[in-house]
């Protein structure tokens, strides 16, 4: 018996090969899904459909008689649609390709449509079962790495931390600390059965890791000079404007502005516009000598805010230049401004490089743009800078607030 095997990307292409070589009267003996040969035979290739067919086997049609008596053409130039199960059923019930049908049309009937829908449901169910098994296997494999003896509740907490973009190492550390925590051990049953209680305890643990420095504090009769530094594009100028507006309009303090950001004309004009609206004195400084003059001219104010040009953490020359300006200004506080949308690696590298400028506090901006805040935890564990302010928008004087411990829940994605 002359039996041939054909492979193609889809069932339609495979049947077209059979029809072209063996003719429309050929019978399909078996179909199955296979994988093509991969790179040097080491990896599985693309999915293919394999069809075994012969033109010497006469197999009666399996279609209902009503379908044969009332053929419904679906269009010219299309191959005939015989729904074929991809498995052993096809081998046990070979289907003819032809039965004398015109090769330019395909027959359809309620029987064919029902069989096609049944095949689609079976195939979809198989794919869903396979996906479910894959997810279970991934969870099973990750369980030993996360903690083989963790309860389902702890593992669920661990998964929530990962979703909040907390690294696996820190997430695992937090869960293990929760397990060994005396309060957890004393109330283990409560924590195991009450996810909210476990989350609350985790939030308390993270709160202890976030140093809160609080807002700028002014003393009567003593001027305070506060500088904001950081990389480009993090929102230093807008943050300065927010601080100036709040201290001037809300707290009725005498505030002055100094900027050394002469590299961006737009930044100078932006800050000058705010100064004019709020009615604040402002000085533009280009040299360290001018910095000393500007600071002396504002000796009678309560607060002087110093806006600096954005500097790349990689530019050692520009950082040393900025350090010279800060030295001349004799800043009381140097707040490092970082965007919460930056990657963990960028945050750590920037905090490390700017530490040479004598940074004393941390301002986090663009919280409204950050998808998750879990990437901030390594920053606090590394640089230990206390948080002073958080910003979450561009509105002046709004969209800024002193940092507080409630940030921990946002970091945990709660």
If you had to describe this structure to a student in words, what would you say it looks like?
The chain is of the alpha/beta class and 414 residues long. It is built from 16 helices and twelve strands. It folds into three domains: 3-127, no CATH class; 149-209; 224-411, Rossmann fold. The strands form two sheets. It has an eight-stranded mixed sheet, sandwiched between helices. The chain has a four-stranded antiparallel sheet with strand order 1-3-2-4. α12 (288-297) packs parallel to α13. The two termini are 69 Å apart.
Number of domain units: 3
Per CATH, the class of the largest domain reads Alpha Beta
CATH level-four homologous superfamily name of the largest domain = P-loop containing nucleotide triphosphate hydrolases
Overall mean pLDDT score? Answer: 75
Radius of gyration: 35 Å
Q: What is the number of beta strands?
A: 12
Name the helicity range. 40-55%
Query: What separation lies between the terminal Cα atoms?
Result: 69 Å
- Largest sheet, strands/sense/barrel: 8 strands, mixed
Strand coverage percent: 15-25%
Number of helices: 16
């Amino acid at each position: 018996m002359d039996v041939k095997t054909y492979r193609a990307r889809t069932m339609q292409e495979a049947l077209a090969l059979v029809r072209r070589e063996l003719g429309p009267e050929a019978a399909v003996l078996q179909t199955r899904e296979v994988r093509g040969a991969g790179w040097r035979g080491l990896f599985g290739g693309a999915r293919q459909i394999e069809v075994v067919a012969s033109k010497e086997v006469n197999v009666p049609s399996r279609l209902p008689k009503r379908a044969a008596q009332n053929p419904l053409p679906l269009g010219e130039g299309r191959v005939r649609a015989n729904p074929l199960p991809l498995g052993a059923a096809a081998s046990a019930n070979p289907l003819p390709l032809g039965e004398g049908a015109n090769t330019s049309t395909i027959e359809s009937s309620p029987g064919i449509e029902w069989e096609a829908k049944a095949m689609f449901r079976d195939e979809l169910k198989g794919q869903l079962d396979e996906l479910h098994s894959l997810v279970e296997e991934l969870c099973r494999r990750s369980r030993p790495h996360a903690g083989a003896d963790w309860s389902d509740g702890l593992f669920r907490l661990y998964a929530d931390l990962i979703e909040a973009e907390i690294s696996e190492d820190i997430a695992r550390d937090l869960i293990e600390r929760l397990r060994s925590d005396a309060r957890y051990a004393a109330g283990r049953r409560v924590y195991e059965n009450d996810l909210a209680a476990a989350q609350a305890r985790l939030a308390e643990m993270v709160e202890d890791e976030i140093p809160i420095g609080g807002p700028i504090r002014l003393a009567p009769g003593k001027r305070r000079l506060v500088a904001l530094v950081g990389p480009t594009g993090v929102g230093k100028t807008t943050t300065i404007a927010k601080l100036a507006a709040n201290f001037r309009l809300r707290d009725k303090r005498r505030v002055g502005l100094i900027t050394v950001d002469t590299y961006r004309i737009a930044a100078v004009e932006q800050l000058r516009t705010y100064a004019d609206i709020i009615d604040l004195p402002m000085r533009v400084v280009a040299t360290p000598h001018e910095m000393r003059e500007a600071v002396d001219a504002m000796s009678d104010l309560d607060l002087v805010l110093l806006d600096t040009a954005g500097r790349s953490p990689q530019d050692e020359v520009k950082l040393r230049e900025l350090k010279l300006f800060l030295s001349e200004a004799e800043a009381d506080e140097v707040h490092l401004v970082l965007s919460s949308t930056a990657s963990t690696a960028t945050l750590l590298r920037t905090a490390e490089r700017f530490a040479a400028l004598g940074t004393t506090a941390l301002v986090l901006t663009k919280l409204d743009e950050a998808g998750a805040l879990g990437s901030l935890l390594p920053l606090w564990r590394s640089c230990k800078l206390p948080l002073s302010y958080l910003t979450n928008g561009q509105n002046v004087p709004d969209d800024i607030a002193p940092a507080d411990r409630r940030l921990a829940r946002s970091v945990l994605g709660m």
